[in-house]
Amino acid sequence: MDETKSEIQEILKGAIRAAISAGELPISEVPDIPFSPTKTPEHGDIATPIALGLAKTAKMAPRAIAETIRKHVNQTEHPSIRELQIAGPGFINVYLSYEWLYDTLRTIVSAKRDYGNCGIGKGKRIQIEFVSANPTGPLNIVSGRAAAVGDTLVNLLNAIGYEAIREYYVNDAGGQVERLGESIDIRYRQSLGEKNLEIPEGGYQGEYIQEFAHHIATEEGDVYLKHNREKRIALFKEKGIEHLLGQQKASLERFRVNFDVWTSEEAIRNSGKPDQIIELFREKNYLYEAENATWFRMTDFGDDKDCVVIRSTGEYTYFVPDAAYHRDKYDRGFDKVIDLFGPDHQGHVPRLKNFVKALGLADDWLEIDIIQQVNLVDADGNRQDMSKRRGQFYTLDLLIDELAEAVGEEFAVDVARYFFLMRSNNAHLDFNLELAVTQAVENPVFYIQYAHARCCSIFQQAKEQQIQMIPIDDTTLELLSEPSEHELIRKLADFPSILLSSAAEREAHRIPHYLYELAGLFHPYYNKHRVLDAANMERTHARLVLTQCVQTVLANGLKLLGISAPESM
RNA sequence: GCGCCUAUAGCUCAAUUGGAUAGAGCAACGGACUUCUAAUCCGUAGGUUGCAGGUUCGACUCCUGCUAGGCGUGCCA
User: Interface pTM (ipTM) of the complex?
Assistant: First the structure.
């Protein structure tokens, strides 16, 4: 399709050039030819608003310009153009020869699993960091959204020729995990019968902490009481991280998200890189001392406030290991890194970017994308706060469990992933668990999967009727002459550009919407026309090719989303 | 106060770099299984794109102001 587009561009440019020479178009330069999307087949295969754009400089009516351009296209010289039509305020609608549709099918059949992919990324290495939840509790549905989106983004980037990997930053250092250790300690001692203990301010109230502490108490008894409090907290912190991180890993695996690299904040802190960075910043005179702390001159980088990098206690704030972590990413040779953040870390974005700049790295090396929040709403539509510390949240596992009861385990993951992936990243998502479960059965993902299953079923039937597939070159594709067939093939032809723009603009949700539209063309076609017809084998073979192509594109798209493509339902 | 995100059909959401008549699903109503799978199809109905201006051939999209909600905003991450 890209080749066809540039061919059309050249033809139109030639026509404009000829019109200028003939003195019929008073402009000095031949412009680039933009294309506008054709929403309906009535707008042709390709459409351009070029005449509208030239109206001002040429001081002519757009339709008159379009007419002039059309006049200078010698159609007999260009068999790829079936018809040029001028429509609306002055759009030039290009109807291509049907041959391009059949070429699309040939392309799909030969590319198969690779159809839609391209090499634009040239093998450049990209790291995407996402989820990166604190190891202080189970993953909630917010992390589920991030996991689904990040995972798909990596698939998309790999499909367009990058070498992308998934990375998870484990915040196993700092105040939060300290509170975790303290909270386990309290629950542990309570479990052993100690009274008058309370979870401290900022501690973790969730039941899972009680259960875990109780488990330690019953399994290992009071052996930890022989240590002093500080030592106990350190031990419990370590035990807690191991336990909760293990839980998170299991949840992610169940959700079909497999990270390539897990990086520990503790390890970064101990690597010496934070100290090197402080040293570097000091040399560059980015730091100063005030109020007993060490500050970074963020205002020199355009921020309105400076920020503390070394607390009065002597500890680094999270900025330092974070900057060190990004330095580490750079040292590992990534051409680009993408961080997916939640909106609660939005304030961190300009600062992290400034730190990266202070390290001397290029501005566009680090990209930070925000995935908007997921709000929990009750049956009346009222928002409920989620708080890991207070123990109020819905876990990803609970979501999948509930969905699994309605539709089974495999489809539960499909439904959940689709649910998160169909939204654009900056849509604030109101989540009602009850509704999600009752609507699971009506989830649009089944519409897509069912279309795929139907394709498979046709081939199953063909096999039973002993209808053999024949080579595509021996197939009379011209028999695919129904408008609905042309529309289907046009949609199939869109896939590569949808994939590309979806990856390039980090808009994973376009894939689910595209697949839904494709299924939405296939189902009516299936209902109206029969593929297998013993009385018309020539057409049967042509339609089998079309069916195969629909199946291929659906399967390729679903694979990008990490959603299964069932052969029967 | 300042910064970011959001506001589209009763509900949940789409709409490619500014393009032609703003689209789906759910919910409502009426139809279609002796058929390659009815998790499907066909039809009806549903809109001042939060409000007010501006930019231009053209605005859901860009700019300004306003309203409402969410998030963030110097030693939590």
Answer: 0.94
